[in-house]
Write a structure and sequence with these properties.
By secondary structure, this protein is an alpha+beta fold. The protein has a single domain, classed as START domain (Alpha-D-Glucose-1,6-Bisphosphate, Chain A, domain 4), CATH 3.30.530.20. The protein is built from two helices and five strands, in the order E-H-E-E-E-E-H. The radius of gyration is 14 Å and the shape is elongated. The termini are far apart.
Length: 107
């Protein structure tokens, strides 16, 4: 398994608006959702890239968990891949940064 990278975002929006933003970013990035659970005070989403056959990188998987902490919604994003390659860590880092930047733009 590839290296796990994590980033956290603080949202001043409520949990349902934050959930909608995260879902929009996932849709905009053409990721396939593999798990989607939304409750009153938290949500969990797993999504992955589709396989790119002409690359040395494995598809990146992102786990997004959000919960309310001290009045704010905290969104934790963890990205990894099932395989490794010489450029996999850089690819996973770029993938995570792209999603974090996109979510932050809406928040």
């Amino acid at each position: 398994m590839g290296k796990m990278l994590t980033s956290t975002i603080k949202s001043s929006k409520d949990i349902s608006d934050t959930y909608k933003i995260v879902k929009k970013v996932i849709d905009d990035q053409n990721l396939k959702i593999t798990k989607d659970k939304c409750k009153e005070n938290e949500f969990n989403i797993s999504a992955k890239e589709s396989m790119k056959w002409l690359t040395t990188n494995w598809p990146t998987i992102v786990e997004i968990n959000a919960e309310i902490f001290e009045g704010n919604v905290m969104v934790k994003l963890s990205a990894s891949s099932k395989g490794t390659s010489i450029t996999q860590d850089s690819n996973t880092n770029s993938f995570l940064n792209n999603i974090v930047t996109s979510i932050q733009a809406y928040l």
